[in-house]
Write a structure and sequence with these properties.
The complex is a heterodimer of chains A (about 130) and B (about 500). Chain A is an alpha+beta fold. Chain A has 3 helices and 8 strands. In chain A, the strands form 3 sheets. Chain A has a 4-stranded antiparallel beta sheet with strand order 2-3-1-4, covered by helices on one side. Classes of the chains: A alpha+beta (about 130), B alpha+beta (about 500).
Amino acid sequence: MTRKVLIRYSPQRSTDPIIASVIKETGLLLNILYAEFDAHGGEILIAIDAPDDEVDYVIELLKKKGVEVKEIKRAIQLDRDSCFDCGACLSLCPTHALHQTDDKTVELDENKCIYCELCVPACPVRALKLSKF
Amino acid sequence: MADTKVKKSVAEINERIRRGDAVVVTAEELVEIVQDKGEVQAAKEVDVVTTGTFGAMCSSGAWLNFGHSDPPIKMQRTWINDVEAYTGVAAVDAYIGATQLSETRGFDYGGGHVIEDIIRGKEFVVRATAYGTDCYPRKEIEVTVTKDDINQAILCNPRNAYQRYAAATNSRDETIYTYMGTLLPNYGNVTYSGAGSLSPLHKDCNYETIGIGTRIFLGGTQGYIFWEGTQHAPTKAMGTIMTIGNLKEMDARFIRGATVEKYGTTLYVGLGIPIPIINERVAKTAGASDEQIKANLTDYGVPRRDRPILREVTYAELKSGEVEINGKEVQVSSLSSLKRAREIANILKKWIEDKRFFPTEPVERLSTTQVFRPMKQVAAVPLVRDVMTREVVTAKPDDSIVSAAKTFSEGKFDHLPIVDVSGKLVGIVTSWDIAVAVGTGKKKLSEILTHDVVTVTDDEAVDAVARKLDRNEISGAPVLDAKGGLKGILTSDDLSKLLGRREK
């Protein structure tokens, strides 16, 4: 199962090759979904598709290397009772996490979501919500 | 109109429905039948085609009658759940419009939401004030009621079911929020509305069967067309209808209050029209495919009445989810729900098959020649070129801060555009930037200039530019020509002078 981890860098750690070294040490594919840095440090969102114990190990390893690590559990929720499948959200989604099935039902693929939140206010009936984590 | 090979009356079709041997198909199904067999054969085989659409229809609202209180009141101003309703009619009649915003909740709740809540049977608060008369002495009232407590609740929409609509995109370098939804910068996405091959009015675009008195599916119940819609423009394939139906019988699955981000509230209306196939001409229009129905891909980045059209796109392209703009595939959003439009067409089909719904012949035909004219304006809105300052002092990035300070002190302006040797704009420095730079040890303008300059073009309307200045919290913007050359500057001073002139 794919799990997602948000890594926060302090300015001191910003130039360390932390993700590269974790990839090298574990041999796992860490997929960077999104990264942003400025003078105050930065954050990278990674997706790890591996058995739970291996993901746990990656999280431990990242922590040891001096970055703040937070696992992200289910962030954007699509309320199927409210959604009427217009698709206003679709063209705003940068990763196609929001998509329509063949019968034009709107679906959210949480594994692809990078939490940009562009879709949330664009939904005419507020069917997309950011859940707390 | 030319003679046709097939001639069926609505009465004959209804007789077949009563006998249980009418052939009813949805408009999507008819597309295939016409493609396979041609319109003449389709007209012989098919009796009724059902259509459907479920989209945002701002020109919607409901008439409510509350009954009289004791002592009675002649409502002068009325609010329902803090959304103002129009009561400039008799004492206790009010019209709640879909786009009116709540006075306490803003964009989150408006007339459209009130209408949905009424359908859902929720309690709503009616508050009214009045000046008091001898016959209506009461001056204020506040009651909580449901739809069962009021006399009438009638959905009455002045403009519904546009035959087709423009597809929207945005050339600007900033995200804009329009009634066509959120439009990303630099043609970042496309939005559209309408059901294409299911679109009710497009399927009888000669208005042979759809007219005044036509019985329709409206919000989950039977409703009627009672006039042409406002802005009805059939010659441009932009026909519209006025619709009416009993709100109390409607289903909130097909009538939803909604918010368009940073634009306002609206009402999603589910609407379907049965088209009796009286001849092959109607079969042909009702059988039009998504490839044959087109929309103008329009640049909403230009906030003018006549927005530039990039090209025509077909509903087939729009429904595919991607449209090509300047060689790039751009993601598309539909603002109306095709899935629910299909559901409506299928429900209407079932109603007719179950002999619960009979198509009608129009009492009067709708106009096929009506045109939609622009507003007659006494004075045109001034453009940037009418009010901008043309003699603009500029500086080079290598110029010193001290020399710029001198320039400001000699002139009566606060914005100094910075241009390179070729005269191209590279940044801007304001008198405030100079004041801040004093004492920092910085020497050259290149060290303090703002690179990311908000610019305008000379053919933009001043109203739009005033919004731009306000949104960016700035007091001036350089005016550029199409090639990026500096033509002048527009400042809040120029706008103030314009207002001064207007008041004279």
